Amino acid sequence: MNVKLFRRDESSTIDESVDPSVPDVEQTAPAPASTTPGKGRPTPKRREAEGKRRGPVAPAPMTAKEARARRKAVKGTKEDRKAAAADRRAAVQDRRARMLAGEDKYLLPRDQGPVRAYVRDLVDARRNLVGLFMPMALVLIMSMFVAPGLQTIVTLAMLVMMVFMIIEGFVLGKIVNNRVIERFPDTTDTGFKLGWYAFVRASQIRKMRAPKPRVGPGDAV
Questions:
Q1: So where does this one cross the membrane (predicted)?
Q2: Torsion sign, CA atoms 26, 31, 37, 38
Q3: For position 120, what pLDDT does the model report?
Q4: Nearest to 191 by CA among 81, 136, 120, 115
Q5: What is the sign of the dihedral through the CA atoms of 139, 140, 144 and 150?
Q6: In terms of pTM, does the model score above 0.70?
Q7: Cβ distance 203 to 161 under 8 Å?
Q8: In 3-state terms, what secondary structure has residue 113?
């Protein structure tokens, strides 16, 4: 008896060598991400990089004598240190001289500017009673130690002086602010702060004022 064998269609043929349960790697594998090629060496630390720029570090001294010699070599000779100290003293003295002369570059921030210079001239051109407070206060205090019985009188006298100081300070601040507004109409450096600056300078002894006065008592400003 003849058995008729059915032929499979070539279009439905499946490669038996491939396991159908395994997914196709070429179709399912994700595309490789773009990566930056490495430098091939670890990034140096900041301390290591600075050490390379500065050069090799000298080994630590083995003895105290070697350490003292190294310190002397860094500091220089005794003559060099004396010369450096003399230069520093000369620079300080020159800076102080320029400050006392009123050069704006060397003044303290509170004294800088044309407005403050004008206020100093206004105060220095006046004969202020408030400037006598410190000398008179010293005299009264010394007299109280010499004669303890004068304590009540000294206390009363100092209270009277303080009242005069307050009145003169108020008048001086008013005068200074009015003159500054007339001379510098666009300035914002006015008010209580400017009046206090004038009062503090007026309360100092004339020879101890810094910067030094540029005008004499009674001069026109």
A1: 129-147, 153-173
A2: negative
A3: 95
A4: 115
A5: positive
A6: no
A7: no
A8: coil
